[in-house]
UniProtKB/TrEMBL annotation, chain A:
SUPFAM superfamilies in the cross-refs: MetI-like
Annotated source species: Streptomyces coryli
Record-linked PROSITE patterns: ABC_TM1
Membrane topology category: Multi-pass membrane protein
Protein name: Sugar ABC transporter permease
Keywords: Cell membrane, Membrane, Transmembrane, Transmembrane helix, Transport
InterPro entries in the cross-refs: MetI-like (IPR000515), MetI-like_sf (IPR035906), UgpAE/MalFG_permease (IPR050809)
Length: 329, 275
């Protein structure tokens, strides 16, 4: 401070107009430091407010709702605390153990396994193609990816539609089924086979593109060395490709698991998927039907909370994986 | 690979053919059925029984799909304008500033992105009912802004990181304020990223079903996804009409997707691989 005073006392040289402003220069520096602390938060504030109000707050609300009996009275809803009744009621339902849980788990497992398998094979294929065919194939993959879930579902329903659909007719022609009587949507297994086909068709492009991005980073020398050692294609894939880009596989596996666990539209929009065939529901659809069709918001919320908890556990594993890779956030 | 074995000479074309068949069959079948005057008689034929545009006029006139598509477009545009702006600010904050809890903010954004919509739809339905925002395009847009934000922040963060810090410093030396630097230097440089992110946010809003279906009970306010769900409920066996409605909903997304495919794919891949 004293230094500043002395400076100010000294006559300012004419050619340095900045000099007399040095006191305010110090204040400016302090203000700069302050803005460098507040500015990121000012920039973040709108986004954080939106996320807090529309994602975080509802999550707290659904947790609260899962411990309540919620009734709609005129002038708004009224919640009565019931403790763990919704959860115990849910776990006592035989439907929950016999259909909802197996549907969810087996469907997720099948979708993830197939998505990864198909996606990886397609990535390996794309990696071997010349430029022209690569563009053609990746564009067609984009077409599969771009299909909205709802219209994609109707297209698959139409392909398998009783009597008139492509596959019943084709299978009828070779004598496997009778197109007049066969209905693929009333049997749980075939219902879910179609749903699996739909989901895999929609989600393998992401895996293919991501794995391809990993494949191109693998040094060619590794394969040459493996070939000199006499490794065949199968061995090269498992001994060179998989270990080298293991983090990529881990990430796509976890992300696919998260996405396939919460599939809703592709089940709900199928014939009977909206609750008219209760045995077709997975956890998400079950929660929705309980809440909105049966007006039992408490049980619906309890099922939703269980789904959320599973996903949060998987998400935490995902984040830990990212950190283990040494990712600098 | 220099070796060209018999397996690779035969296997590669077979694999390409299988891939093209699997990926394009649904799109092909959808479009050809939409143009088919008697879709239910087609069976397993490769070509439709004829060619007509009647199905499209059916869904646009009787099905009111013009209105539904417009609703979806309005909601989509509102979503991208607001979420693009908010996400850009947030992305600059996490990419350019070092501050306490930065990592926590990033992780929180990552976690909320994984929350299932089925868990959000129950409380948000009650919330929106209390604020009388059901059956309102505004209420739906607000929800979609929140849904598209986490991904937009992550993607844009990647784009902001690619802009060299020296460019910003040069702007400061030239006497720019932070805000001026943001508008005249950073914004033009991340514009391509903003476009890709916006396209993705638009597609999210355009495709979304659960919220639109739960919130919109007035048929004038249906989004396209809800419109086709209700239309299917009433005309389930009129496959020509259902597929032409599907085509109308799918084509814009398809075009957008193919236009931005390179940028989007590499961005997504980078987002997944590098976090």
């Amino acid at each position: 401070m004293t230094e500043n005073l002395v400076d100010e006392a000294a006559p300012a040289p004419v050619k340095e107009p900045a000099r007399p402003r040095r006191t305010s220069g110090e204040a400016l520096a302090r203000r700069r430091r302050l803005t460098s602390v507040t500015r990121p938060w000012l920039l973040l504030a709108p986004s954080l407010a939106v996320l807090a109000a529309l994602l975080l707050w509802p999550l707290i609300q659904v947790g609260k709702l899962s411990f309540q009996e919620y009734a709609v009275k005129f002038g708004g809803g009224v919640g009565t605390w019931v403790g763990f009744d919704n959860y115990s009621g849910l776990l006592e339902q035989s439907d929950f153990w016999k259909t909802v849980l197996p549907n969810t788990v087996l469907f997720t497992f099948a979708c993830v396994a197939l998505t990864l398998g198909v996606g990886t094979l397609v990535a390996l294929l794309l990696n071997r193609l010349g430029p022209a065919w690569k563009v053609i194939c990746s564009t067609s993959i984009m077409a599969a990816w771009a299909m909205p879930a709802i219209t994609g579902t109707y297209v698959w329903v139409w392909l398998f539609a009783a009597q008139d659909g492509l596959f019943p007719k084709a299978l009828d022609a070779v004598g496997l089924v009778d197109a007049e009587t066969a209905n693929f949507f009333t049997d749980r297994l075939s219902f879910y086979l179609i749903a699996t086909l739909n989901v895999v068709h929609h989600s393998f492009p992401f895996v293919a593109i991501t794995v391809l991005a990993g494949l191109v980073t693998i040094p060619k020398e590794l394969y040459e060395a493996a070939m000199l050692d006499g490794a065949n294609a199968w061995q090269r894939f498992w001994r060179v490709t998989v270990p080298t880009i293991k983090p990529v596989f881990t990430v796509v596996t976890i992300l696919s698991t998260i996405w396939d666990f919460k599939v809703f539209t592709q089940i709900y929009a199928m014939p009977g998927g909206n609750g008219t065939q209760p045995e077709m529901a997975n956890l998400g659809v079950f929660s929705y039907i309980q809440a909105f069709a049966k007006q039992d918001y408490g049980t619906g919320a309890a099922a939703a909370v269980m789904l959320t908890l599973v996903l949060i556990v998987i998400t935490i594993i995902y984040i830990r994986t990212l950190f283990k890779e040494g990712e600098d956030l | 690979m220099r070796r060209s074995t018999l397996a690779s000479r035969v296997g590669l074309p077979v694999a390409v053919a299988a891939l093209l068949l699997f990926t394009l069959l649904p799109v092909y079948w959808m479009i050809t059925t939409a143009l088919d005057p008697q879709a239910s008689l087609r069976g397993a034929d490769v070509l439709p029984t004829g060619w007509t545009l009647d199905n499209f006029s059916t869904v646009l006139d009787q099905g009111n799909f013009g209105r539904f598509l417009l609703n979806s477009a309005i909601v989509g545009v509102a979503t991208i304008v607001v979420s693009g702006l908010l996400a850009l600010f947030a992305a600059v904050a996490v990419a350019r500033f070092k501050f306490k809890f930065r990592t926590s903010v990033l992780i929180m954004v990552l976690i909320v992105q994984m929350v299932p919509l089925e868990a959000l739809v129950i409380p948000l339905f009650i919330q929106m009912r209390d604020y009388e925002l059901l059956n309102s395009l505004l209420g739906l847009s607000i929800v979609y802004i929140a849904l598209s934000l986490p991904f937009a922040i992550w993607t844009l963060r990647g784009f902001v990181l690619t802009v060299p810090k020296e460019v910003e410093e040069a702007a400061y030396i030239d006497g720019c304020s932070w805000w001026r630097m943001f508008r005249s230097v950073l914004l033009p440089l991340v514009a391509p990223g903003l476009v890709a992110t916006s396209v993705f946010a638009f597609i999210t809003a355009w495709n979304e079903f659960v919220f639109a279906y739960t919130f919109m009970k007035d048929s004038e306010k249906y989004s396209a996804a809800v419109g086709i769900y209700q239309f299917f409920g009433e005309h389930g066996t009129d496959w020509g009409a259902v597929m032409s409605a599907s085509t109308l909903i799918t084509i814009p997304v398809l075009i957008f997707f193919i236009i931005v495919q390179r940028r989007l794919a590499s961005g997504l891949a980078a987002g997944a691989v590098k976090g």
